[in-house]
Every structure is written in C-alpha cells, then in structure tokens.
Amino acid sequence: MLGAIKEIVKKFLSQIENKEVVIVSHYDTDGITSAAILAKALKRLDQKFCIKIIKQLEEQTLDELRNLDKNKLIILLDLGSGSLHHLGDIKSELFIIDHHEIIHEIPKNVNIINPHLYNEEEVSGACLTYLFAKEISAENKDLSNLALIGMVGDMLEREVSKINNVLLNDAEVIVKKGLLLYPATRPLHKTLEFATGIFIPGVTGSSRGAISLLKDAGIEKNGYEYKSLIELDNEEMSKLITSILLRLPSRNTHENLIGNIYLIKLFNRLEDAREISAMINACGRLECGEIALAFCMGSKKAKSTAESIYAKYKQHIVSALDYVSKSHNLIGREYVIINAKDEIKDTIIGTVASILANSQAYEKGTVIIAMAYAQNKIKVSARIVGRNGRNIREMLEEVVKCVGGDCGGHAAAAGCLINKEKEDEFLNLLRKQLDMEIVKV
Q1: Above 50 in pLDDT, residue 18?
Q2: Secondary structure of the chain as H, E, C letters
Q3: Residues 127-139, mean pLDDT to the nearest whole number
Q4: What is the pLDDT of residues 303-347, one digit of tens each?
Q5: What is the pLDDT of residue 441?
Q6: Strand ordering across the sheet containing 49-54
Q7: Model's pTM, two decimal places?
Q8: Average pLDDT value for residue range 407-421
C-alpha cells in the first residue's frame, strides 16, 4: 500500500498545477482531521483549494461534483468507497483516500488509496491522509498529531499494526496506561459525569452519581477540586476501578476498562486525544464542521467556540442515553433495535450506537441497531459489541436491496439511509435477517 501511495501522490502532484483542489470530507473526527491534514499540506505548496464537509455523498453533492469544470481536481476523504457506482460519470479525475469497504467496481476516472485493496490491517482515514501528506513532503511529519486524533476518533487505537506504529512514532505523544475515561486531564467528577466511553449506570450523566462513586472509592478533593485521572496514584486508581466495576454488569473485568491514554500538546496545553477527538466530532455532528476544521488548523477562537458546542453536544448525548434507557426497544436473540424516530438527532444516532456497543452492558456479538429520522429519510447505524462476529454491513446491504437506499461502512460498524415510508418494511426485513443470521452462526 505504501508503494501505491507514492505512485498516487506523484500523479496527484502532476495534475494540481493551475487547478483548484476541491476537498470533500466526512463530518466526523476522522474526516475533519483528514481535511485539516491535507489542507495544511496544500497550504505549504501554495496550492489553491476549497473544503466541503458533508454527512454523506448525497445526490445534491454528486450533482455539484458532476458540474465542476475541468480546472478543478476533486479529492474525497474518509468517504467514497461505498459510492463508487455514483462516481463514474464525474468529468474530473477523482482521488479518494478512504478506509471503508469497497462494494462496487472502481471506475476508470478514480484513483483510490484504501487498505482493503491491499489486505492491509484496519487503519483510519486520517492516518492514510497523513501518509499521503508525508509523501508530498517530509515537512508534513508535524501533522501526525492530527492523524493521531483521527485514529482515536475512529476507535482504532487498539489495533496493533505497523502503520499505526509509524504514526505513533512520528507523533509528539505521551502514552500512558490507564482507565479508558476521558478527559484524563480534567477533574475526575466531571470526567465520570460525562463518561460515555465507559457508560456507568447511575453515574454517566449524573453529577450526584459521580461524586457518590468517588466517595465510595475513598477519593477526596485535592483542595477545592478533585484530581484528574492521570494524577491518581496506584492505590487511588485501584479503588476507582473497583468502584466502577461494582456498578457495571458482572461480565466486566479489570482488563475491559484499561487501555492507552494518548496525551498531546495543543495550544501549549497537554490534552487527552480522546477528548479533542470527541470535541471535533461534536462540531461535525451539530453541523458546525467548519468550526472544527478551523480549530484543527490552529484557530484559538475556533477552539473556544468548539468547547461551547461540545458542552451542548454532551447534553444531547446524555438526553439520548436517558431516552434509550426508558424507551421500549425491540430486543431479539443477540440483537437490540432502538427506533428513536424524532427523539434523537440523526447526526448523533451513530454516536449513541457506538456508546451502547462499548458500554459493556451487552454480551459480545450483540448487534446494536439505532434509527433516527432525518427529514424524509431514516438514518440507521449498526454496531457489534466486541467488534467481532457477524458482518453487519453485509446484513444491512441485504435489507437495503429490498427497500432501497444507500449502505456502507465496515463489518463491525455500518450504516444506511432509507426512505421514511419504508420504515415498517425495513424493520420487518431487518428482524428476519437478524434472526436468519443467528441461525447461520
């Protein structure tokens, strides 16, 4: 794959002279950090470019790309692999840097970097874009921190791989073992209250519950404030883990809660990469992708605005999780379907599905399907607990073939967009497919 990146970079650089580069990127952390990496690399070349942050490649965006004149060069980041059948009639030569599974034949006008073409290990779109930028110039090695944030944003930091190790070696990062709560750099009661990485019943979303847990763990305030996670000594950390385990389902173990904490320096302050990733994702999900992009490009003003958006986003997430806990969900053998309709924003339904899949509340292999209305469409997000088991992208594809719509993603994390009038038909076919998949397994 690294050889292919070298060749595609050569082709890209040979074609951008006297052209404007049109960057179209996905609205999550991986997509936004990818756009920032490429934008910074192009700025250093004094290359003209523009950026569009989108939810998905819908017909309106595709029409805009089809109508671009030939002095524009298009590059898609963290998307495109699931939409190749829509890209063959675009006049311009197209470049794609993406890590999602390739479903259709690659058109002749498309140059694509994707690990699935080379049987490579799972790697984030931001990491691929960073390798692309580093091939443009070694000067771009300083963009590795942005790629690290993208990697964490796509929950690929646990993948031990050669490519991820290249990224970690390039990045200016401090790696510590600890509880997978974030931010690890803020007062502990606030970290626990908004702990969506590890969903703790009675604590997540409750300031009173967070303080109660700390009292049970025997962790006192350090002056006027509680310590941060990375300030705890071994004894305090052990007590905290025990208190959390007592509030989680019995299947949880110490090992489920521990992992790498990535600390990076931003604006002269040590930050938890997971927290920064969540902040960028919040801006994208609340339709403020341009704020997140400006923050990634180094704007202090944008950072302040992003923090405010993130605070609002966390309240959305807490409300959504509260709704899920109180609603009547469709529960079958090894699957749960949450049909939120208008109760949860379509832009955060995927995040809610991910939180539930990582919450330790379900057995490994359980499929989580979360649905929310998106105007005249329904956004469907699917996750599998433990990230191993059935291929949920293939499963969704089988249903979408019958009801119509667009589908994409990975084996363990996928999604689709269908018309709202197909809701009942989709649910009936989905449950049949899930039950049939269980019989197959």
Answers
A1: yes
A2: CHHHHHHHHHHHHHHCCCCEEEEEEECCHHHHHHHHHHHHHHHHCCCCEEEEEECCCCHHHHHHHHCCCCCEEEEEECCCHHHHHHCCCCCCCEEEECCCCCCCCCCCCEEEECHHHCCCCCCCHHHHHHHHHHHHCHHHHHHHHHHHHHHHHCCCCCCCCHHHHHHHHHCCEEEEEEECCCCCCCEHHHHHHCCCCCCCCCCCCCHHHHHHHHHHCCCCCECCECCEHHHCCHHHHHHHHHHHHHHCCCCCCHHHHEEEEEEEEECCEEEEHHHHHHHHHHHHHCCCHHHHHHHHCCCHHHHHHHHHHHHHHHHHHHHHHHHHHHCCCEEECCEEEEECCCCCCCCCHHHHHHHHHCCCCCCCCCEEEEEEEECCEEEEEEEEHHHCCCCHHHHHHHHHHHHCCEEEECCCEEEEEEEHHHHHHHHHHHHHHHHHHHHHC
A3: 95
A4: 999 999 998 998 888 888 888 888 878 888 889 999 999 999 998
A5: 47
A6: 49-54, 20-26, 72-77, 94-97, 110-113
A7: 0.82
A8: 88
Type of residue at 32: I
Question: Domains of the chain by range and CATH?
Answer: 2-142 (3.90.1640.30), 175-321 (no CATH), 327-440 (3.10.310.40)
pLDDT of residue 267: 85
Contact 147, 120 (CB under 8 A): no
pLDDT tens per residue across span 28-77: 999 999 999 999 999 999 999 999 999 888 888 888 888 888 889 999 99
